[in-house]
Design brief:
There is one protein chain. This protein is an alpha+beta fold and about 270 residues long. It has two domains: about 120 residues, N-terminal domain of MutM-like DNA repair proteins (Alpha-Beta Barrel), CATH 3.20.190; about 120 residues, Orthogonal Bundle (Helicase, Ruva Protein, domain 3), CATH 1.10.8.50. Helix content is about 25%, strand content about 20%. It has six helices and ten strands. Strand 6 and strand 7 form a beta hairpin. The structure holds a DNA duplex (16 and 16 nucleotides).
Length: about 270
DNA sequence: CATTTCACCTGGTGGC
DNA sequence: TGCCACCAGGTGAAAT
């Protein structure tokens, strides 16, 4: 499931391959789910525009688009959901099942959106009419100590649920929530407002280190995640708790435990995390 | 308002 | 071997 490091890896890959290219033709399949903006308006808006840059905000991939010149006048926002992929391919390459969008670029290459479960979303924004897209939550890579602590003040929900809440922190999902709680030595079912200042800062630093390290390794390939070139990431090899139920803790050998918190499978070491 | 539950989807798993 | 019930999980809407 693509979270911040996977989305960052994909955004960088697409930026490298599609920056400066122009969208000359758009094809969408018949499924209505992915289209947050009506399909026809979206296709009309994309066609003819140039991709100025591609970047990540939270778990969203944002395309800065222009119909002329170097100032963006529109944005295409892609959310990959659970199983979404964005691929830059040659036009004659085999089309994967569940391909919902194909954008033909002036260079001859194709940008494809593939998503078996269809939890992903595609949105088009005309900047003359609306405002610039911004993810609601704070970025875990740049947030400071005081702001981070303030996010959880007065919140009685479990810290695991708080980490997954995108309006607080943008980009953290199930894998990196579990991994950061392990590295900070905090139980997933601690109440967010009961964490000490020291624990909160351990958590902030753990998140920063893990997300940065995972980006360096190209993300985690669990299930079938791949980047814009179809390459897998390697951070899954360094997971300490996620999907390691019953396996020995890398630090103390205690079997890793699995519980359900906030409706999600949650993995932790009962000895290292108190 | 804060928090929890549920629906949306398909591929993979396990029981029979 | 085949069929089917069941479930994960990101998000947003609905319920509490």
């Amino acid at each position: 499931m693509p979270e911040l490091p996977e989305v960052e890896t994909i955004a960088r890959g697409v930026d490298k391959r599609a920056r400066g290219d122009r969208i000359v033709q758009v094809w969408f399949d018949h499924h209505p789910q992915p289209f947050k903006t009506p399909r026809a308006r979206q296709a009309r808006g994309l066609t003819g525009r140039t991709i100025l840059a591609v970047h990540r905000t939270g778990k969203h991939i944002v395309f800065e688009l222009s119909s002329s010149g170097s100032t963006p006048d529109a944005q295409w926002i892609v959310h990959l959901g659970m199983t979404g992929r964005l691929l830059v391919t040659t036009p004659d390459g085999p089309v994967a099942p569940h391909t919902h969008a194909r954008l033909t670029l002036a260079s001859g290459r194709e940008l494809r959106f593939v998503d078996p479960r269809r939890f992903g979303r595609l949105e088009f924004r005309d900047l003359h009419r609306g405002t610039v897209f911004g993810a609601p939550g704070d970025e875990p890579l740049t947030i400071g100590e005081r702001e981070f602590a303030a996010l959880f003040r007065g919140r009685r929900l479990y810290i695991k649920a708080a980490l997954l809440n995108q309006t607080l922190l943008a980009g953290v999902g199930n894998i990196y929530a579990d991994e950061s709680l392990f590295h900070a030595g905090i139980r997933p079912r601690r109440r967010a407002n009961r964490l000490t200042r020291a624990e909160l800062d351990r958590l902030r630093i753990a998140l920063h280190e893990i997300l940065t390290h995972a980006i360096r390794l190209g993300g985690s390939s669990v299930s079938d995640y791949v980047d814009a070139d179809g390459e897998r990431g390697f951070f899954q090899l360094e997971h300490c708790v996620y999907l390691r139920t019953g396996e020995p803790c890398r630090s103390c050998q205690t079997p890793i435990r699995r519980v359900v918190v906030a409706g999600r499978g949650t993995h932790y070491c009962p000895k290292c995390q108190q």
